Amino acid sequence: MIHTLLTVEALLLLATAPGLAGLLLLAPDPANLPLAALCLLPLGPALSAAVYALHHRCGDLTELHPARTYWRGWRLNALPALRLWAPLLAWLTVIAFTLTHFTATGLPGWWAVLLAAVGAGSLLWGAHALVLTSLFAFRARDTARLAARFLLRHARATLGAASLLILAAALTALLTEALPALLAAPLLLSLLHSSRPVIAETQEDFTA
What we know:
This protein is mostly helical and about 210 residues long. The chain has twelve helices and no strands. It has helices at about 1-15, 15-25, 35-40, 45-55, 65-100, 100-105, 110-135, 140-155, 155-175, 180, 185-195, 195-205. The longest helix is centred in the middle third of the chain and has 35 residues, at about 65-100. The radius of gyration is 17 Å and the shape is globular.
């Protein structure tokens, strides 16, 4: 398990290295949010490949090839993941840009709370969509519908994803934004564990 986690973490960082390097060069200015979103585009396929590799890990030491499994997951899931990740990233960028320039909109304060809630809900939807895209070969629209269906149907899985997002945000705010990236593999493994009911129902009811 330790070998698999370390290997998947290293490959995830490698796959996202160009975007992470671009983020380091950007000044912390709200005007740079669209550029930051472009830098984060490789993150979707990289996360999907990591979830695939962690789910398909092998307990047999003679068959332990996490790097091979990771790149197989990347080849299989890169395009399907981008079809969902790119619109989600664009939507979250619009929300973040609006919130950082909220005083200029002239809207009442409760709109900011509503936008923040919509953004949080979108992230939780994205967590379910990430697991489904990584492990199943559905069309993008079907994955989107299933992810929305499971938000309330499997509240425990949704709460598990929420707790991981809160943990990542706390690590970023209190320590450094690099820490969630360095702990991405164990965080994704926790997401897989909390998503077991989602995976089981999908296998039972929506696959042949």
